[in-house]
Amino acid sequence: MSDAIVTVDNCTKTYSRGAERVEVLKGVSLQILRGEFVALIGPSGSGKTTLLNLIAGLDQPTTGRVIVAERDISRMDESQLARWRTTAIGFVFQFYHLIPVLTAYENVELPLLLLNMTAKRRREQVLTVLHLVGLQHRLTHRPGQLSGGEQQRVGIARALVTDPALVVADEPTGDLDGRKKEEILDLLENLQRGLNKTILMVTHDHVAAARAHRLTRISDGLLLEERADTKEEALALAFPDAKIRGND
Ligand SMILES: Nc1ncnc2c1ncn2[C@@H]1O[C@H](COP(=O)(O)OP(=O)(O)OP(=O)(O)O)[C@@H](O)[C@H]1O
Ligand SMILES: [Mg+2]
Predict the structure, then answer these.
(1) Which atom of ligand 1 approaches the CA of 202 most closely?
(2) 115-162 pLDDT, tens per residue?
(3) 24 lines ligand 1 (CB under 6 A)
(4) CB of 203 closer than 6 angstroms to any ligand 1 atom
(5) Tens digits of residue pLDDT in 78-121
């Protein structure tokens, strides 16, 4: 078994809109090792979400290959991909994407309904992850009755409930400030440290990026190699205006 959980091999992605063609990814290669916490940074419109979607099997590359946990997902058809996504990947969104009429418990339970699982086992797993994110006392609250930070914790619980090895998060703290942002980052860090999950997080924020082990930067559809020996140097290059504080 290879140490890489994600291998993106020379991927391009071109969107067509009428006669217009937009080449969003122009030949991107990336490896992520099992248990790594990687931050993907880059300006708005540079292709971060596009790349994340390829890795999460939400979209397919125009050319190139995407291998996740030994499976070539760029060769799967839509129904294979849908099945694969349910167990292999947890996706965390900036704006949570919770279903407003469902309770926290029901939102988290949703992915498990696609699996062949007893009601008892389902309940155990839902309660385990809601406990993990510290929301055991909010089971019957609907998203509108939860704070932003709590909604994101429900989003993370939903991403974890099928126990995927890889969690991808698209600006998971983009809508949160201060203490709430730190809580979500603590949670992601604990998933990596305590449960050995691999985490790929898109962020615009140097505070969030500083929590990752490694930074990878995308600009104009290409991954830039950071000519930096340490993460602190990479952070300083990526966020020249920010006062960077090391991770202890
Ligand atoms: N379905 C689509 N059809 C056409 N163009 C698209 C589509 N999805 C994305 N694009 C274009 O691709 C480019 C990259 O988009 P993407 O969402 O990956 O950027 P991003 O780096 O995530 O930006 P942001 O930081 O603003 O979220 C943008 O110019 C966008 O307009
Ligand atoms: Mg985006």
Answers:
(1) 22
(2) 999 999 999 999 999 999 999 999 999 999 999 999 999 999 999 999
(3) yes
(4) no
(5) 999 999 999 999 999 999 999 999 999 999 999 999 999 999 99
Ligand 2 centroid from CA 65, angstroms: 21
Query: Distance, CA 49 to ligand 1 centroid (Å)?
Result: 7
**Conformation bin of residue 66: beta by default, left when phi > 0, alpha when psi is -120 to 50:** beta
The pLDDT score that the predictor gives to residue 248 is 45
Contact between residue 114 and residue 122 where contact means Cβ atoms under 8 Å apart: no
Does the pTM surpass 0.85? The reply is yes
CATH of the domain at 104: 3.40.50.300
Q: Which domain holds residue 175?
A: 36-57+78-238
Number of domains in the chain: 1
Whole-number Å distance between alpha carbons of 145 and 168 = 26
3-state SS of the chain: helix, strand, coil percent to 5? 40, 25, 35
Domain membership of residue 188 (yes or no) is yes
